[in-house]
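Hey, quick one: can you model this chain's 3D structure?
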Amino acid sequence: MAYAKSKNRDGGRFLALPHVVMESEAFKSLTGHQIKLLLDIAMQLLSSNNGRLSASWRYLSEERGWTSKDTIRRSLTVLEERGLIFCTRKGRRPNVAAWYAVTWVPLNHHDGMDVGQQSLPRGAYARWQPQNVVSCPKSVLTDKSIGPKFVPMA
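Sure thing. Here's the predicted structure for all 154 residues.
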């Protein structure tokens, strides 16, 4: 999408990241690296290419300043697990890059994808919940006798 420059904001193109995404547990649980990677992937989004977004080493290191393949790999795994991105084409040798889609907009299917048109788990981030959450037992929250009893000195 090409947008005319506006007097009300800097630059032309922009990334629309819905509040519903940023308010989801999936997004709020991300680290700084994971948020940066999500933004670096999502900023490629146009009106017709969701599903063909790149997270290649060449793009991320040369264009976006990334310095660690391992950090990228771990961050991609987390973003996929939380349903914020979806892999539409697996990368393979010698030089076929993986493609991704963000899950808050519809998929723009392309013949080069490894998935079908209806495969995008739209809104999966909203259904993600942290695993192994240990909550405080109710008695801990309501019992007033926690800790040693205070006895004032005479």
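One thing worth noting: The chain is about 30% helix and 5% strand.
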